[in-house]
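Issue 218. Parser rejects a valid record. Input:
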Amino acid sequence: MAYITDSKSGVANATLYYRIDNQEVVRLKMNRTGNLYFAEIPPKRYNSAVTYVVRAVTRLETKACSKEYTYIVGDFHPLVITYIERVPANPTTTKPL
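Output the parser choked on:
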């Protein structure tokens, strides 16, 4: 999401540019609600480097670009084991687990 304003002519459009692991750049038109612009980068492979910028154009063709941001795709929700059942309930040396 990006908060974009232009007090003189207004914002004509905003675009999100991103690339994965230094591959080809993908362009996404950003939607808006008021001055809040948003676009969603689809899920990417674990440990991928995602680099992106936001570019905006005013109605008078003035252009602006955000700084470049990068994040690494990770799994921040650890695996949790919640239930273990022993079968058979009382194993003996003669019954395999």
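Fixed in the parser; the record now loads. The mean pLDDT is 92.
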